[in-house]
Amino acid sequence: MGQQAFFHAPHGGADFLGIRKSRNGATEIVYDDGVTRRMVWRVAGQAPDGKLTDALRVAVGSLRVLPTLYDELKKRAIQIERIPG
């Protein structure tokens, strides 16, 4: 993945979604609600950058970011695993 992508909620919320590379080269999705919740998932296998970016863009544009994120990833057959922390 040559580039990182970050999205902020356009509807005035503090929701944030981003894609990053971990130290070992794995692709990760980061969610932060701007107040109390921060979650990180590791993308299982290789997901095309465009599919992953599109899923995040759609999710952050909705009022219910996390449920939409899960739905969009499922539609695109992108599997994730939660990183505890």
Task: List the SSEs and their pairings.
Blueprint: E1 5-8, E2 16-21, E3 27-32, E4 38-43, H1 49-60, H2 65-75, E5 80-83
Antiparallel strand pairs: 1-2, 2-3, 3-4, 4-5
Helix pairs in contact: 1-2
What does this structure look like?
The protein has 85 residues and is of the alpha+beta class. Helix content is 27%, strand content 31%. It has one domain (5-83). It contains 2 helices and 5 strands; from the N terminus they run E-E-E-E-H-H-E. The chain has a 5-stranded antiparallel beta sheet, covered by helices on one side. The radius of gyration is 12 Å and the shape is globular.
Sequence stretches where pLDDT stays below 50 over 5 or more residues: none
**Main β-sheet, spatial strand arrangement:** 1-2-3-4-5
Number of helices: 2
**How many β-strand runs?**
5
> What is the CA-based Rg, rounded?
12 Å
Task: Return the structural class.
Answer: alpha+beta
Order of helices and strands: EEEEHHE
Q: Please bin the fraction of helical residues.
A: 25-40%
Shape: globular
Mean pLDDT: 86
Please report which band the strand proportion falls in: under 5%, 5-15%, 15-25%, 25-35%, 35-45% or over 45%.
25-35%
Which oligomeric state applies?
A: single chain
- Summarize the biggest pleated sheet: 5 strands, antiparallel
Distance between the termini: 24 Å
> In the residues, how many domains can be counted?
1
